[in-house]
Fold 2-amino-4-hydroxy-6-hydroxymethyldihydropteridine diphosphokinase.
Amino acid sequence: MTRAVLSLGSNLGDRLGNLRTALATLGDAVLVVSGVYETPPWGDVEQPAYLNAVLLVQDDAAAPRDWLERARAAEAAAGRVRDPQRRFGPRTLDVDVIAVWGDDDEPVLSDDPELTLPHPRAHLRAFVLRPWIDIQPYGRLPGHGWLTDLLTAGPAAQDALDLRPRPELALESTA
Ligand SMILES: Nc1ncnc2c1ncn2[C@@H]1O[C@H](COP(=O)(O)OP(=O)(O)OP(=O)(O)O)[C@@H](O)[C@H]1O
Ligand SMILES: Nc1nc2c(c(=O)[nH]1)N=C(CO)CN2
């Protein structure tokens, strides 16, 4: 059994539809869904605003690596085309594996460039930390500490002021 926190981001096409595609692709593995936030682009500012959200997922059989494969499958389902020339550039859907916990509830650590855990830039990203706090207010980012401390006092604190909650764009339809 592994549990994981996945971050979702989209700034091209039907942004909300792309996030929902991720949810549908992950299916029964999804335990909890955050609110949706509209966020200014981070890392490469010459691109449209993103919609971001975070999921808590769990699967009895999934190994840490399987979450990366499922993330890639979700991105493909949303028609993501990679531009190797442009780091942090626009995309229909980005699904990052932020952190993974094993059977013993211990965080999985990895410095494999194919799957680095926790995600090496998560602590810098208000667009990850803020929605994650929605679903785990007392959560910790392994190796970095409390999410609330990172969001209020770390390098992400300034960006946190520019996130816009979009409650009308709920990922899970209430109909
Ligand atoms: N925790 C992780 N989650 C997702 N991808 C990862 C992770 N660790 C390493 N990678 C690797 O990062 C590579 C680039 O992924 P991607 O194109 O999504 O990057 P990016 O979205 O531009 O940047 P970022 O990962 O900072 O959001 C992939 O080949 C993937 O194998
Ligand atoms: N606000 C925001 N900015 C980003 C995002 C994202 O999901 N949200 N993803 C990126 C890909 O690396 C680069 N920049």
In short: The radius of gyration is 15 Å. The chain has one domain: 2-169.
